[in-house]
Amino acid sequence: MASLLRCSLRSRPAARLPAARSFSGSLSRNAGAAPEHRYFPDEPQSPIVQTTVPGPKNKAAVAELSQVYDIQGLNLFTDYERSIGNYIADLDGNMFLDVYAQIASIPVGYNNPILRQAVSTPEMARALINRPAMGSFPSADWTNILKTGLLKAAPKGLNQVFTALAGSDANETAYKAAFMYRRQLERGGPHVEFSEEESMSAMLNQSPGSPYLSILSFKSAFHGRLFGTLSTTRSKPIHKLDIPAFDWPQAGFPSLKYPLEDHVKENAEEEQRSLQEVERIIKEFHNPVAAVIVEPIQSEGGDNHASPAFFQGLRAITKRNNVLFIVDEVQTGVGATGKFWAHEYWNLESPPDMVTFSKKAQTAGYYYGNNALRPNKPYRQFNTWMGDPARAILFRAILEEIERNGLVENTASTGDYLYKQLESLSKKYPLAIQNLRGKGRGTFIAWDSPNRDEILLKAKTAGVNLGGCGSHAVRLRPMLVFQKHHADLLLERLEKLF
Question: Cα-flanking dihedrals φ and ψ of residue 298, to 5°?
Answer without folding.
Answer: -65, 115
